[in-house]
Write a structure and sequence with these properties.
This protein is of the alpha/beta class and 302 residues long. Helices cover 36% and strands 17% of the residues.
Length: 302
């Protein structure tokens, strides 16, 4: 892998709750691998980057919104390896770019803004052909790496934890690509827990069928619904207070879009005895901390 994926320490969380329930909870800090290409995004990009490096066109086209961590990670990785990057952005071009999109341009990404109506066509073959006509041959990465190639990359996360005997491996889920990778890499005795951060996300199993094919066992999947706090990127005072608790108790920074919802779900499920005594639980810190910059100053203690 182009970046050092083994720069992801595993932290043991010490908490009275865990002791009282006779189980352990660790967190693998994927957010610490790299300051920009951090978290799960690096893994999902891995095989797409390989394909682009081996191609004659050396070009990647991908998709995202104005605050897309995926776009920034792609732009930076492409710059690092001499690849051309094009980002198709949802929405009309603003008078002033978001900080996220400004970072993308700083890393050499060419941005193409399209309407939300057109963006909804981003998986349509005719739409994709039009992009190839406009920009030339390229590796096309779906939004968030949502593709079997992205899941194959996410499976590399298993390399970080293969020596540990975890009973449960837990992740927040948006596109479900990381969940798919964990299922592909799971040992026979492990359960993979998905915590959807989108409201009304009822198609997880259909997504996994696309991402994994028949290469996973459905009985190894657990889904903890109803921890979306109102929907994608939504938050409540309760969630913010929990984020500050995690910082005070564990010096663990989280973001309100993904990781805070994951840990809230795991804590709540432990409190309600939905993990058996003796469970060894691992949570993935998938990055995205820059999203907290949108919160008013003083909201968080970190």
């Amino acid at each position: 892998m182009p970046f050092n994926i083994f720069n992801a320490p595993v932290k043991v969380l010490q908490d009275e709750l865990f002791c009282s329930k006779n189980l352990t909870v660790d967190v693998v800090r994927l957010d610490m691998i790299h300051p920009i290409v951090s978290g799960n995004k690096l893994f999902k990009l891995h095989y797409f980057l390989q394909e682009a490096l081996q191609s004659s066109h050396k070009t990647i086209i991908t998709f995202g919104g104005a605050y897309s961590n995926h776009l920034v990670a792609t732009a930076f990785a492409c710059q690092a390896y001499g690849l051309k990057s094009i980002g198709v952005v949802r929405g009309e071009m603003p008078e002033q770019l978001s900080a996220t999109l400004q970072h993308c341009t700083n890393y050499g990404m060419q941005l193409k803004f399209i309407s939300r109506v057109d963006y909804a066509k981003k998986e349509n073959a005719y739409f994709l052909n039009d992009l190839i006509t406009e920009f030339g041959q390229a590796i096309i990465i779906p939004e968030g790496g949502y593709h079997p190639t992205g899941a194959k990359g996410a499976a590399l996360i298993g390399e970080l934890i293969k020596e540990n005997n975890y009973s449960h491996i837990c992740t927040a889920s948006g596109t479900t690509t990381t969940t798919a990778g964990l299922l592909l890499a799971a040992n026979a005795n492990q359960t993979i827990i998905s915590v959807p951060v989108l409201k009304g996300m009822t198609d997880t199993e259909e997504r996994l069928d696309f991402l994994c094919g028949n290469n996973y066992k459905k009985e190894q999947l657990g889904i903890f619904n109803n921890y979306h706090f109102g929907g994608y990127a939504k938050k409540t005072p309760e969630l913010i207070a929990f984020m500050n608790y995690l910082w005070q108790q564990h010096q663990l920074p989280t973001d309100f879009v993904y990781t805070a919802k994951l840990f809230f779900a795991i804590y709540d499920q432990i409190k309600n005895d939905n993990f058996s005594p003796g469970s060894n639980i691992l949570c993935l810190h998938t990055g995205g901390l820059q999203g907290n910059n949108s919160l008013p100053a003083g909201t968080l203690l970190f």
